[in-house]
Design brief:
Blueprint: E1 10-14, H1 20-30, E2 34-39, H2 42-54, E3 59-63, H3 69-83, E4 88-91, H4 106-134, E5 137-142, H5 155-175, E6 180-187, H6 197-201, H7 217-228, E7 239-242
Parallel strand pairs: 1-2, 1-4, 2-3, 4-5, 5-6, 6-7
């Protein structure tokens, strides 16, 4: 379908801490987009950039600390210099740990909030300036199903994910008049490895998942392509929970 075609579009994908960051970049490339990868892990993003190039698309791997505005600004300037524009931003940086609340240090709290939430603010601001000039853009924030429900020993993470959800809604309202759509995706339990049906049945988490399997990277990649494309022209300010039905229990 033509409305899913991203030919001629340029996407920035941040974050290398999640298994699906690479798959998001590859899904965008398969749909026709050129891709800029931005994260601290230079080796990881360069490997992904090589895979994007093998798909016949252009790619840049720019080592970037997405909690630092100066590094983000340099990354955006490099992307503009190379490609001339930015059509799509996927905010995917993540830091997560499990620890009883009273044992969480102030420094640990700050690192989670800065990596998960502040990075979304900084990247959206830097890229949004160019989208304003273009009068069009797509921002996709990768959050978590925990943006909508809590879990013990993860107060900092849940707070940061909830923050992404409310940030998404507020920015979508503010920038709708500029033709910039802002949406969020909330993944549930995912696995990068494909397991046999027999092995999958041994997964203790399946008792909580109505669809009886963990998510796969393609489940996120295809949704990102939809939200980045003209097929979702009338969609903004939403969170799409991709968790096999877990949130239906809430």
């Amino acid at each position: 379908m033509e409305e899913f075609n991203l030919q001629g579009k340029v996407a920035i994908v941040t974050g290398d801490g999640r298994a699906w960051s690479k798959h998001i970049a590859l899904a965008l490339a398969e749909a026709g987009a050129d891709v800029v990868l931005a994260a601290r892990n230079q080796k990881g993003i360069e490997e992904t950039a090589q895979e994007v190039r093998r798909l016949g698309r252009r790619a840049m791997a720019i080592p970037t600390d997405v909690t630092k505005s100066t590094e983000i600004q340099k990354m955006v300037e490099q992307a503009i210099a190379e490609f001339g524009k930015i059509d799509i931003l996927v905010n995917g940086a993540e830091l997560q740990f499990a620890k009883p609340f009273l044992e969480v240090s102030e420094e640990e709290w700050k690192r989670v909030i800065e990596t998960n939430l502040t990075s979304v603010f900084l990247c959206s601001k830097a890229v949004g300036q160019h989208m304003m000039e273009q009068k069009k853009g797509r921002i996709i924030n990768i959050a978590s199903g925990l943006a909508l429900r809590g879990v013990a020993n993860s107060a900092a993470y849940c707070a940061s994910m909830g923050g992404i959800l409310q940030f998404t809604k507020a920015l979508a309202l503010e920038w709708a008049r500029e033709n910039i759509r802002v949406n969020s995706i909330g993944p549930g339990w995912f696995s990068e490895e494909v397991v046999s049906e027999e092995e999958g049945r041994k997964d203790p988490l399946l008792r909580y998942i109505p669809l009886k399997r963990r998510g796969r990277p393609a489940d996120i990649g295809s949704l990102v392509v939809y939200l980045a494309s003209d097929a979702s022209e009338y969609v903004t300010g939403q969170i799409f929970v991709v968790d096999g039905g877990v949130i239906a229990h809430a």
